[in-house]
Amino acid sequence: MNTTTISSTQAVPEVGEIPQHVAIIMDGNGRWAQARGYPRVWGHKRGVQMVREVVRACVDLKVRHLTLFAFSSENWRRPPTEVSFLMKLFMRSLRREIKALADNGIRLQVIGALEAFDKTIQDLIAQAHNTTIDGEVMTLTICANYGGRWDILNAMNQMLAARARNGVAVDAYVEEDELRPYLQLADLPEPDLFIRTGGEARISNFLLWQLAYTELYFTPVYWPEFDRAAFFEAVHSYQTRERRFGRTSAQLQPTK
Ligand code: IPE
Ligand code: IPE
Ligand code: MG
After folding, report:
1. Is position 48 within any domain?
2. pLDDT digits (tens, 9 = 90+) for 69-92
3. Residue 252 lies in a domain
């Protein structure tokens, strides 16, 4: 899928009533479960159902891209039993959902330092990618072993390797345009709306580069309770924002 990939710091992007790209930190699974006297992992299981619900809501609203933070580069610090549960849940969900995603025109991609995962997971990811590649309704991006700093460093390293191949001086000034193609999500417009569930007001090393001009929405609702209505509320909040991209309010009037 080829979308306009205007950088919000290089040019003012088009803004519509419906966010083209929504990025979500799905947080609060563990606390949701514990508050009900269940082990934390119950929250992760229930969280997968909410992914389905939010994907459907996005398709209905005609959101073109949905990006979900599923496992951060820092989440390896969790107890091994929880990490291994999350890996199994990830595999099971991929297996179960591939067909439905393809049938509904949803292109699935997984971004992050994927080489850290078992080969079985890497193969499943490749299979999911290939099976859904023609999807034109929506792009669903799952961030796994993803970190915003990794993304920027990885892009920088790839860019330098390309410079070496092409005989460009390593110390030549780096412009955004040269780096941008190597960043994850380079083929997608930058997120219009960021949502974090679970009550924390932080970015936790999510899309550091791509969120430069994204509208931020934080809600105390735990992810396992973030249903269609809660998602619509977030979109509604987005619709009340004035996206100035550095300009004054008065400058926006003619196009409003
Ligand atoms: C988010 O929920 C899911 C992952 C990080 C995998 P948490 O597991 O962080 O739940 P809380 O924040 O501890 O409640
Ligand atoms: C962020 O949630 C990562 C994901 C939702 C995958 P965390 O629960 O790991 O974030 P921190 O550690 O509380 O900042
Ligand atoms: Mg958390």
Report:
1. yes
2. 999 999 999 999 999 999 999 999
3. no
